[in-house]
Structure formats: structure tokens, C-alpha cells
Amino acid sequence: MGSDADVIVVGAGLAGLVAACELIDAGRRVIIVDQEPAASLGGQAFWSLGGLFLVDSPEQRRLGIRDSYELAWNDWLGSAGFDREEDFWPRRWAEAYVAFAAGEKRSWLVQRGIKIFPVVGWAERGGWLAGTHGNSVPRFHITWGTGPGVLEPFVQRVREGEAAGLVQLKFRHRVTDLLVENGVVKGVAGEVLEESRVERGQPSSRTVVRGFELRAEAVIIASGGIGANFDLVRANWPERLGKPPERMVSGVPDHVDGSMWGVAERAGARIVNRDRMWHYTEGVQNWSPIWSRHGIRILPGPSALWLDALGRRLPPPLMPGFDSLATLAHLRKIGFDWSWFILTQRIIEKEFALSGSEQNPDLTGHNWRLTIRQRLMPGAPAPVEAFKRRGADFVVADSLRELVDKMNRLTGEPLLDYAQVEREVRLRDAQLENTFSKDAQIMAI
Ligand SMILES: Cc1cc2nc3c(=O)[nH]c(=O)nc-3n(C[C@H](O)[C@H](O)[C@H](O)COP(=O)(O)OP(=O)(O)OC[C@H]3O[C@@H](n4cnc5c(N)ncnc54)[C@H](O)[C@@H]3O)c2cc1C
User: Fold this and answer.
1) Among 119, 359, 367, 413, which residue has the least CB neighbours within 10 Å?
2) Are residues 62 and 7 in the same domain?
3) Ligand 1 in reach of 15 Cβ (< 6 A)
4) d(CA 401, CA 415)
5) Residue 154 in contact with residue 21, Cβ under 8 Å?
6) Looking at residue 265, what DSSP letter applies?
7) In whole angstroms, what is the distance from residue 162 CA to residue 3 CA?
8) Three-state SS at 240
9) From CA 289, how far away is CA 399, in angstroms rounded?
10) Are 67 and 139 in contact (CB under 8 A)?
11) At what angle do helices 146-163 and 14-25 cross, to 10 degrees?
């Protein structure tokens, strides 16, 4: 049977678009299929902060950060903890990726028109010993234009490919099967979903109008993760993280449903490391949701006091921005689905941020004036202020006693003892009265 294209790419997210661009550059004919409507072209990346992992960049050097391939590779090994037979390919991939990040990645992106904001963030600091989890130095480079800024050049190139007759974009095409002949994947089959006029990121109809089949020499699966499929998350939840929470929010749109896992497995693919999942504990409900159970991750900055549901400080190094998975394991042991950040108005104005392109309109809109105003002038950035006022998980009060009362009312369980919380606040604050300190969080600041 004849081919419809040289290559079929399943998924029109950033991974699928980048793969398609490489194919266009090689002069190949590509079909990109995606279950969502055209409005969601680009997938999750549109919503992202566009934080890029770069090693030994000019932005780092300008800030006096001395980074290297060796340091980054050791950091990667410390975080990945490769210790299984099935880690062979992930390890090879990681080696190539760290070399890319320390080598041509920046120039490759810049050549395509991506601009990098001159401030480098420090994600996942670790805080244990040198050979274990974490980034030894700040490496989180934010794209000027956030997620949409990362997508832009790749969308443009794919559109050019379309105009040149090399690319066909087929939206509302949900793949349910891989066509295998003599052990080789020769195409995809699935269902065409009814037209949908929902806006970007919103859940779209799953009503099927007909079937489809497409054939090509190769099929690339770029279908994203499983984050919006809580059943799949729970089914693969590792024992080392304790029991999965009963209540979760979703940082990703509904289309991140992991449906291709089953499709690929049925065709003979071997999925590895499905228990090595990543979750943040600092998710709050979005007061203005776009997708189902829409959660936004708080980037709390270094100073907020982090307490568990019983009002006790989290032990070091489980401080804001240090070790997400160890924090999750710790909180699961305590057994409640929430923890608390206690902070003042000054801290929220200076440090607090929310992860997501729509929560950072200054950076997303390439707007220097707004960026300077929001970051340097008094008052919290508008999206943060909106969450403070309207977010279901936020509690604001003029005194600590009133705050603790409101926190207890919010959870419906009087788990917090005022005296305990006050003691934690006083003890921590007393550590700020000196230029010396024994408190790990203050030392890290
Ligand atoms: C709020 C937010 C902030 C983030 N911040 C950062 C950051 O700062 N730095 C960073 O590196 N990463 C960040 N990320 C993560 C990053 O954006 C994602 O990992 C990345 O965009 C995933 O791209 P992808 O192409 O693999 O998957 P997706 O964007 O999920 O695209 C997959 C596509 O496949 C389609 N698909 C799935 N199954 C099928 C099927 N059966 N048939 C047809 N189509 C199918 C989906 O509809 C979707 O369009 C963030 C994500 C979010 C949501």
C-alpha cells in the first residue's frame, strides 16, 4: 500500500513540532496528527514559563556563575539515580542532552529567533551532598516571551513547510492504533473527532465522526505525558512516594492524557521507568481555570516559611525550591494532601511568582516597561495579587492568630495549634537578627 507521507508525527506539541522542523529541513514529507483543534497547536509549551536548561551560558557568566559540562553531568547523575538495566537508553539520552545544553543548544535556539531573559533562576537546588540531587548552580534560563516565545519559531517553520507542500496538519485526529507490518510500524489508525471551537487549552469534545488510517515509512510519537490522567498517575505511583493524594490539581491541559502509552504498548513498544514521575507539592487551584482541575504551581521564592498540615516546619533541605520529590515523599508520610506557606505582604511582592505564561504577562508579552514595573515597583504583580484575593487556597489576615483561625477554617479540620505556628515563626525570625545563623533556610538565602 502507498504512503501518505515519509513520516507521521503523533502530537503537535513542542516535541512534535521540533521533530517536524528537522524533517522539513531534511526535505521530508510530514503529516502531523493531533487530537486537539488547531487552537491548541503547540500543546503544553504554550502555557509554560519557557525555562531552558543551559550550561555555561553567557547569561550565567554575566552573573558570575561558573558552570561546566562536568558539573552539570554530575548534577544530572545525582538527580537521575540511574540504577536499572532499563536506564541504558535514558542514560545515553541524558549524556547527549547535557552535552547539547553545554554546547550548541543556545546558539541553535538563538539562530531560530529565541531570546533569553538575562536573569537565571535556580530550580531544584538539592541541598543534600554534592553527589546527590540538585543543580549546583542556577541554570533555569527564562525565554523572553515565555512558552509562546519558545514555540513561535517552530510553529512558523511548520507553517512554512505547510505552504511549501511538505507538511499536512491534521487536527481532531486521535490515534488509537499503530499499524504494524512484519514487526515494523507502517502507519497510524484512529478516530476523527467532531469539530470543536473551544479556546486554546480548554477540554474539547470526544465525539467521534469517522475513522482514519494513514501510512508512512516512519512514525514518531510525541504525545506528551500523563499528568491530566489521574487514574494513570495513581496506577503508576511509586511506593517510595507513599500513598497518592486523594486530592490533586492538574498543571496540564486535559489532552495530556497518556493515551498513547497503551497504543504504543499494544503495538509492541516497551515503556520504561513509568514510576519515575515528577510532581510539585506547591500547586494551587486556579481561580480562573482553563482546563479541568486547573492547578498553578507557586514559585514561592526563598523566604516563605513552609509548614506541614500540622504546623511544623519542613526539615532541611526541604525548603522552597530545593527538592520537589523528597518534599512530596515527606508530605505523603505526614499523610495530608496539603502544606502551608506563611509569608508577609513584602515577601509576596518581592519573591512570589506563579509558573505559567498567562501568569507572567510582562515576560510573555515581551514588555520591558511592564517587566520593570511589576518586578521593581511596590505591590505584587497583578496575577499574583489576583490569586491572593481570589484564589481558593489563599488566606489573608492582619495578625497571625487570625491567619491560623482562617487556615483551620479553610481545611475544615482544626489541625493547626496557634502556639505551635507562632513558635515556628518567632524562632525563624530570631535567626534573622544576626549575620550568623544556624537555620538552613536562612543560610541558603
Ligand atoms: C504551566 C506549565 C509550565 C511549564 N514550565 C516549564 C518550564 O519552565 N521549562 C520546561 O522545560 N518545561 C516546562 N513545562 C513542561 C513543558 O511545557 C512540557 O514538558 C512540554 O511542552 C511537553 O511537550 P510535548 O510536545 O512533549 O507534549 P504536549 O505539549 O503535551 O503535546 C502532545 C500532543 O500530543 C497530542 N496527543 C496525545 N495523545 C494523542 C493521541 N492519542 N492522538 C493524537 N494526538 C495525541 C496532544 O493532544 C498534544 O497536543 C511546563 C508545563 C506547564 C503546563
Assistant:
1) 413
2) no
3) yes
4) 14
5) yes
6) H
7) 18
8) helix
9) 30
10) yes
11) 40
Q: pLDDT digit string (tens) for 368-421?
A: 887 777 767 778 889 999 999 999 999 999 999 999 999 999 999 999 999 999
Q: Per-residue pLDDT tens for 170-206?
A: 999 999 999 999 999 999 999 999 999 999 999 999 9
Alpha-carbon span 114 to 110, nearest angstrom:
5
Give the closest residue to 306 by CA, choosing from 291, 327, 288.
Answer: 327
Q: Where are the alpha helices (DSSP H) in 26-129?
A: 58-62, 69-80, 88-102, 105-111
Calculate how far, in angstroms, residue 10's C-alpha sits from the geometric centre of ligand 1: 12
pLDDT of residue 1: 67
- Cell numbers linked to 316: 532541611
If we measure between CA atoms, which residue out of 240, 426, 415, 399 comes closest to residue 333? 240
User: What pLDDT band is residue 240 in, cutting at 50, 70 and 90?
Assistant: very high
Which domain, by its residues, includes 3?
Answer: 1-48+145-279
Query: Distance of alpha carbon 45 from its chain centroid, rounded?
Result: 9
Within this chain, do residues 130 and 150 fall inside the same structural domain, yes or no? no
Count structural domains, the chain.
3
Residues 228 and 326 in one domain: no
Best probe residue, ligand 1, of 223, 261, 293, 299 (max atoms within 8 Å of C-beta): 223
Whether 10 is in the pocket of ligand 1, judged by its Cβ within 6 Å, is: yes
- Burial degree of 245 (CB within 10 A; 0-12, 13-18, 19+): buried
The cell numbers describing 245, all together, are 493524594
Q: What is the CA radius of gyration of the chain?
A: 23
- Residue pair 253/290 in contact by the 8 Å Cβ criterion: yes
Instruction: Give the pLDDT mean for 59-78.
Output: 98
**Quick one: 249 and 292 in the same domain?**
no
Residue 380's pLDDT is 83
Give me 366's grid cell. Answer: 515581551
Q: Calculate how far, in angstroms, residue 34's C-alpha sits from the geometric centre of ligand 1.
A: 12
The DSSP H or E segment spanning 310 is: none
